[in-house]
Design a protein that fits this description.
With 232 residues, this protein is an all-alpha fold. The chain is built from six helices and no strands. Helix 4 runs antiparallel to helix 5.
Length: 232
């Protein structure tokens, strides 16, 4: 048995060493291949990054070209809106006053040349049956209302607000006079009623400002300002 084991041991040791060599050599070779693969993968990963950078730069250039073209078109459109005297020097136009001055100069030159002397309809009353600046539907509606002796809602509301404000100020002045005469109890009593009427007037003003044409809005009343007017 001992001789058999002794005979088998060298074989097993040789097998172990052989297997170790066989196993280690592929690992080394595989490790080398892994290193080569890693290097190739790093080089391949670096190439897409350069491609994305170049694509981003090209897209940014295209966007810049588009924005430049759009800004040039907008500048041309805005330049066409100016009078011929101011075209090409849009940066020199600082406000609407410059444009108004050009229009006034044109009017004065036309008057000096006599272009307003032989106008058709000179000396005749103006025809106010139609408003060329109003919407056709609204103009028709206003003409129907005027023929029937009516007015638009905002016109009637304006009249109502004006009359209520004048009446309210008369009552406020009387209450202030009573306060100046020493009747503070009457002043306090009138203040409560006047403040309620003030809120009602301001509600009507708010309604008026919603339906009135642009540029005809009015301010509401403020208690402090009205009292300050009486103190002056």
């Amino acid at each position: 048995m001992a001789t058999r084991l002794a005979r088998k041991l060298p074989l097993s040791s040789s097998l172990i060493t052989k297997s170790t060599v066989d196993i280690s050599s592929p690992l080394v070779s595989h490790g080398g291949s892994r290193l080569r693969w890693a290097s190739s993968s790093s080089s391949s990963s670096s190439s897409p990054s350069t491609e994305t950078t170049s694509s981003n730069s090209s897209s940014s250039k295209q966007e810049k070209k588009i924005t430049d073209r759009l800004s040039a078109v907008m500048d041309a459109v805005n330049d066409r809106k100016l009078p011929p005297e101011l075209r090409g020097q849009r940066n020199a136009v600082r406000s609407e006053t410059d444009i108004i001055n050009v229009v006034e100069q044109r009017i004065w030159h036309s008057m000096e040349e006599g272009q307003f002397e032989n106008l058709s309809g000179k000396g005749k009353p103006l025809n106010l049956n139609t408003n060329p600046h109003a919407d056709p539907a609204e103009d028709t509606l206003y003409r129907i209302l005027s023929k029937n002796g009516c007015a638009p809602e905002w016109v009637e509301l304006n009249k109502e607000i004006t009359s209520k404000v004048s009446e309210w100020r008369v009552v406020l002045k009387k209450a202030w006079t009573s306060k100046c005469n020493g009747d503070h109890a009457k002043w306090i009593e009138c203040c409560e009623a006047l403040k309620m009427q003030l809120r009602d007037i301001n509600d009507k003003v708010f309604r008026y400002n919603l339906i009135v044409p642009f540029g005809r809005q009015m301010f509401g009343l403020k208690w402090e300002k009205e009292v300050a007017r009486l103190e002056e």
